[in-house]
């Protein structure tokens, strides 16, 4: 594996899952591979889990990790051929090439604008780093995907599933701010190769991009969708159709104990950070069926498996 930006970058995803599980059993068992290697993590947007779990993964591999808060650095220009007389001090072409001099791998977190759909869905910032850097790129969540989260979610489902092919329901949930579709897009992308019975539920108008959602059953009645579910994966996202908008929703879509009671004693999942009593009721997130902390724990092993696979080919 060279880059890790989407599922199709991974030659053998099931092997990567196995690797992550092996690493979880022995996190410091392969320190030779990271010796004298450096990973640089660039954050254009905030992060708690991704930042710390990826640093922890690098530490477990005996690798140096440099974190750069790109939101505080020189403002980057991404347009080609432009006369740079605005507030953007440095072009991506130099920036990516320069960071490649210091790094063996570069990780990038960048959120969508939620304004320009075409630009967001071309994943412009991530792809330009890929184009102008001379080292492998790991997505730490891009405008449209969050593959490290999805790999950690897959590890978690494999760990906790009580039947061969559990019913997994991705449910939209309310949020006071317009959020990206990245976590949900990626979750759907990865769940399609997992051995699960996948369903999506959301209010009308919140259909996800067809490139991620086509072929997956959608149920607009949330309570009906919850029936027989073994895993409930909650996430808010803004509208794809009315791009980046929050739509007026009549029903209450918060995940409550009453709704969870309709499931097959399902586990509750969320990538975090989560708004309590908006996305999910306290009783659900604090229940013994809540997997949110296990998901966050598995972020380290997901990152470590990915970094290790990339290092193998350097
Ligand atoms: C971000 C999102 O929804 O993509 C990051 C999640 C990992 N969430 C928020 O901004 C609250
Ligand atoms: N789930 C997740 O990626 O969290 P952070 O935004 O805190 O990294």
Tags for this model:
314 residues; alpha/beta; Rossmann fold; five-stranded parallel β-sheet; four-stranded parallel β-sheet; globular; binds N-acetyl-L-norvaline; binds phosphoric acid mono(formamide)ester
Short description:
This protein is α/β, with parallel strands linked by helices and 314 residues long.
Task: Describe the protein.
There is one protein chain. The protein has 314 residues and is an alpha/beta fold. Helix content is 36%, strand content 14%. It is built from 12 helices and 11 strands. The chain has helices at residues 13-25, 49-60, 92-102, 117-121, 124-132, 147-160, 182-191, 210-213, 222-226, 257-260, 282-285, 292-312; strands spanning 38-43, 64-69, 76-77, 90-91, 105-109, 137-139, 167-172, 197-201, 218-219, 231-235, 267-269. The strands form 3 sheets. Strands 9-8-7-10-11 form a 5-stranded parallel beta sheet. Strands 2-1-5-6 form a 4-stranded parallel beta sheet, with helices on both faces. The longest helix is centred in the last third of the chain and has 21 residues, at 292-312. The protein is globular and about 55 Å long. Bound molecules: N-acetyl-L-norvaline and phosphoric acid mono(formamide)ester. Phosphoric acid mono(formamide)ester (CP) binds at residues 47-50, 141, 149, 271-273.
């Amino acid at each position: 594996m060279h880059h890790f930006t989407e599922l199709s970058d991974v030659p053998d995803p099931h092997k990567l899952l196995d690797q992550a599980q092996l690493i979880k059993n022995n996190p410091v068992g392969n320190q030779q591979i990271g010796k004298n290697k450096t990973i640089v993590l660039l954050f254009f947007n905030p992060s708690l889990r991704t930042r710390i779990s990826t640093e922890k993964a690098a530490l477990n591999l005996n690798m140096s990790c440099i974190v750069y808060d790109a939101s505080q650095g020189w403002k980057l220009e991404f347009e080609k051929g432009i006369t740079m007389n605005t507030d953007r001090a440095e072009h991506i072409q130099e920036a990516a090439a320069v960071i490649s001099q210091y790094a063996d791998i570069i990780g990038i977190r960048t959120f969508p604008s939620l304004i320009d759909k075409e630009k967001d869905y071309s994943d412009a910032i991530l792809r330009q780093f890929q184009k102008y850097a001379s080292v492998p790129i790991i997505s730490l969540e891009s405008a449209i995907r969050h593959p490290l989260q999805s790999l950690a979610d897959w590890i978690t489902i494999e760990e906790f599933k009580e039947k061969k092919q559990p019913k997994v329901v991705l449910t939209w949930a309310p949020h006071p701010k317009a959020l990206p579709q990245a976590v949900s897009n990626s979750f759907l992308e990865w769940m399609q190769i997992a051995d699960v019975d996948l369903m999506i539920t959301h209010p009308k108008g919140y259909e996800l991009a067809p490139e991620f959602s086509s072929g997956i059953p959608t149920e607009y009645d949330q309570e009906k969708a919850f029936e027989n579910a073994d895993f409930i994966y909650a996430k808010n996202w803004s509208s794809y159709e009315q791009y980046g908008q929050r739509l007026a929703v009549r029903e209450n879509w918060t995940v409550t104990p009453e709704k969870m009671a309709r499931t097959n004693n399902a586990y509750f999942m969320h990538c975090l950070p989560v708004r309590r009593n908006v996305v999910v009721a306290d009783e659900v997130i604090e229940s013994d069926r809540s997997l949110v902390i296990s998901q966050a724990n598995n972020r380290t092993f997901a990152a470590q498996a990915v970094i290790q696979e990339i290092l193998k080919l350097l």
